[in-house]
Amino acid sequence: MSELTIIDRIRRMARNPGIGDDCAIFRPHAGEDLLFTTDQMIEDVHFLGVQKPAAIGERALARSLSDIAAMGGVPRFCLVALATPSAHEKWIEAFYRGLLRLANRTNTTLAGGDLSHAEKIYCDVMVCGAVARGKAIRRDGARIGDAIYVSGRLGKSWGRKIEPRLALGQSLVGRATSCIDLSDGLSLDLHRLCVASDVAAEIDRVPVSRGSTLERALHGGEDYELLFTLPSKSKSAAGTTRIGTMVRGRPGSVVFQGKPLVPRGWDHFK
Amino acid sequence: MSELTIIDRIRRMARNPGIGDDCAIFRPHAGEDLLFTTDQMIEDVHFLGVQKPAAIGERALARSLSDIAAMGGVPRFCLVALATPSAHEKWIEAFYRGLLRLANRTNTTLAGGDLSHAEKIYCDVMVCGAVARGKAIRRDGARIGDAIYVSGRLGKSWGRKIEPRLALGQSLVGRATSCIDLSDGLSLDLHRLCVASDVAAEIDRVPVSRGSTLERALHGGEDYELLFTLPSKSKSAAGTTRIGTMVRGRPGSVVFQGKPLVPRGWDHFK
Questions:
Q1: Strand, coil or helix: what is A6?
Q2: pLDDT tens column, B177-218
Q3: What chain B residue is nearest to A188 in terms of C-alpha separation?
Q4: β-strands A200-203, A254-256: how paired?
Q5: DSSP code of B47?
Q6: pLDDT tens for each residue of A69-116
Q7: Which residues of B touch A224 (CB under 8 A)?
Q8: How far apart are CA A5 and CA A23, in angstroms?
Q9: Closest alpha carbon within chain B to A267
Q10: Which pick of A212, B172, B218, B268 has the fewest CB atoms within 10 Å?
């Protein structure tokens, strides 16, 4: 099967006849800011070649949607760059089937992409989301005294399905003072949020996923839950847990049950 | 050097303190459509690991800018996904230095990206451009009788510097009936443009790059010149050559000097 045939097939699967021009054309709505994020998934780094391609495709989109959720955005469209060994037509179709399942469920249009070959499977998914002008939730807005929350339970097993917390993120717009998605582990992502906001954190509890350990809940990556802060008297949403409070201190420093928590989540270059 | 340190260094090189949030925030101008394109560059497929990283970075951005040029867009910002073997900090910096040189020259903000590791070097550059509402030049607007043009000379050597034809593309807005950038070879890209526009083409001459061959000018990829059509009586721009005319016939078929020209430019899956 040639590249033209594969692209034609994807175009039909996506029900988007626009795919195939040099660029995708997007007309923004008035009064909105746009959010852009891109995330790579690489064979033998983020997944194994034996895993199901539909699950890999769905996960690749879910990771980027999680970033959109963290800033309170509504997903609009995605671009998908994919490289596979040359004889993988069926694999490519199954990958797109999985990705499009989640795309349809979250109203994310597959607007275009790039197809190439490589020795190992590689993909990069860019997602564009939208949020009311000036209302994106950032990492740098947490203030001393704010309550710190996480959604769900942490330390989940790696291979599971990711459910990007889009509805929660959207409900936090105008309410949360800061938010980040937990992709690299609570200890590292909370450290990052504190550095950006110029505050320190004290946490005293962490909701641990069933069958997991506290260690994994603190330092394991790939939870894709939201970590966010609210003014101390605000009420949070269902399915979230207050884990601590922002305090005065060395920016970025985190204390867990009275002891310093060293950030040692996922770092691609360590 | 840790991932945080590398990202901090890139943030300073890009002079964009916004880099580091989950998403880049972009505020669109009123009355504009946005254009999005993404292009992969993969070690041993699009370049060799021994090539200079600054040249690879510049080329990675240039390829995507060429797509923006083809639709008449003005570049706004880019997202850069990069994966390298773990010990490549100096390589990463040089890659970004080359990319940012072209980004600055073309007013393209480096708005964010993703950094990971992989056995081979891999990158994917997404560029957003803007064009007046409804004015993007597409592939599907060529009409029977239109004159076919290319910019520059074709069949250029692979390793050279790419100069994306942004000014030419912008000057064609409202004038060209269709446009595509020559990334996969004239025979394949002209075939694609004809298929999209539902027309056939007759070409009788091709400007061949000095030291190259007609064969390479017809079928070689990576020229990154613009192929476009104008109504028969329009004047074209300097540095462009009329190579033929759109005619009635089987959509997508191309005749060169009286003989069928089979599309056999670059196909990643052949």
A1: helix
A2: 999 999 989 999 999 999 999 999 999 999 999 999 999 999
A3: B4
A4: parallel
A5: B
A6: 999 999 999 999 999 997 688 999 999 999 999 999 999 999 999 999
A7: none
A8: 19
A9: B3
A10: A212
> Please, what is the average pLDDT of chain A?
92
Q: Would the CB atoms of A23 and B136 count as touching at under 8 Å?
A: yes
d(CA B194, CA A49): 38
Candidates B210, B199, B207, B200; CA nearest to B225 is B207
Residue A152 φ/ψ region, left for φ over 0, alpha for ψ in the -120 to 50 degree band, beta for the rest:
left
Question: Dihedral, CA atoms, B159, B161, B167, B170, nearest 10 degrees?
Answer: 40
Per-residue pLDDT reduced to its tens digit, B121-168: 999 999 999 999 999 999 999 999 999 999 999 998 877 888 999 999
Contact assessment for residue A120 and residue A49, using Cβ atoms and an 8 Å cutoff: yes
Q: Which of B170, B179, B269 to substitute to test the interface with A, most A CBs within 10 Å?
A: B269
Residue with tokens 């539909």: A54
Structural domains of chain A sorted by starting position, each given as residue range(s) with its CATH number in brackets? 3-132 (3.30.1330.10), 147-253 (3.90.650.10)
Which residues lie across from A38 on neighbouring strands? A126
Q: How far apart are CA B243 and CA B207, in angstroms?
A: 8
Residues 6+ apart with CB under 8 A from B132: B31, B32, B33, B173
Inter-chain contact A34–B28, Cβ cutoff 8 Å?
Answer: yes
User: Which of A3, A8, A36, A173 to substitute to test the interface with B, most B CBs within 10 Å?
Assistant: A36
| CA gap A47, A45 in Å, rounded | 6
Closest by alpha carbon to A148, among A94, A186, A196, A95? A186
Residue at A219: amino acid letter? H
Asked if B115 and A268 come within 8 Å (Cβ–Cβ), the reply is: yes
| Cβ-Cβ contacts under 8 Å, A267 against chain B | 2-4
Query: Are B25 and A136 within 8 A, CB to CB?
Result: yes
Contact (CB<8Å) A22/B139: yes
Average pLDDT, chain B: 92
pLDDT digits (tens, 9 = 90+) for B24-79: 999 999 999 999 999 999 999 888 888 899 999 999 999 999 999 999 999 999 99
Total H helices, total E strands in chain B:
6, 12
